[in-house]
Amino acid sequence: KNEVEQSPQNLTAQEGEFITINCSYSVGISALHWLQQHPGGGIVSLFMLSSGKKKHGRLIATINIQEKHSSLHITASHPRDSAVYICAVTPWGNQFYFGTGTSLTVIP
Amino acid sequence: EPEVTQTPSHQVTQMGQEVILRCVPISNHLYFYWYRQILGQKVEFLVSFYNNEISEKSEIFDDQFSVERPDGSNFTLKIRSTKLEDSAMYFCASSLTGYGYTFGSGTRLTVV
Do you find a cis peptide bond into B25, omega within 30 degrees of 0? Predict the structure, then answer.
């Protein structure tokens, strides 16, 4: 059973394109996280959301709690954005459920 | 910027051996976590630790796993008798409040 579903699994974009990655979840949550995993494997936390929208530089994350859906947008994409983007949710408590990730490649 | 440090970055061990993976969380953080990622698969939660005890653990975290905060700065994951299927990248994370996490760069464990 997959508590967290991401789409698309793989995404290739031209530099400068606007990118959207989607995440749907099936459990009640206290927060949703967007993570970035670099080719070397390291993980960076990008956003934690419990409602609304957050923006950091060219990254925007939104969440709709009623629809159990979140999106991560990247504006003016750049080759250095190439990474795996992972959606994870925390139901009430400290358990985490992770999506399978979206592998993004941005071509110059 | 404060970091979560994991050592070693890569560990190779014989099947059946015990391994200890080490993490130094951010110094004022109170919540600590271990995750693993088997190659090609998604990240999986193992355990969370708060106030010197386990607060949550997943089905993966069975009796062969244990965690400790032995000296107030390190946070360790011990695997008692490693199996081939324990080969994975193991990530430590810490949090001040239980929301917002800083991840370490991971330890790649290879069981041969």
Answer: no
CA distance B82 to B68: 18
- Find where tokens 């967007």 sit: A34
Which residues of chain A are under the pLDDT cut of 50?
Answer: none
Partners of B45 on chain A (C-beta within 8 Å) are 95-98
DSSP summary character for residue B26: -
Please name which of B26, B27, B24, B32 lies closest in space to residue B7, comparing C-alpha atoms. Answer: B24
B44 interaction partners in chain A (CB closer than 8 Å): 98
A8 preceded by cis ω (within 30°)? yes
Question: What pLDDT, on the 0 to 100 scale, is given for residue A76?
Answer: 96
Residue A33, strand partner residues: A48, A88
User: B103–A42: do the CB atoms touch at under 8 Å?
Assistant: yes
pLDDT at B107: 95
Q: Residue A51 corresponds to which tokens in the numbers above?
A: 């409602």
**B6, B26, B42, B53: best mutation site toward chain A, by most A Cβ within 10 Å?**
B42
Q: What is the DSSP letter of B40?
A: T
Q: Which two tokens stand for residue B27?
A: 């110094």
Query: Identity (one letter) of the amino acid at B57?
Result: K
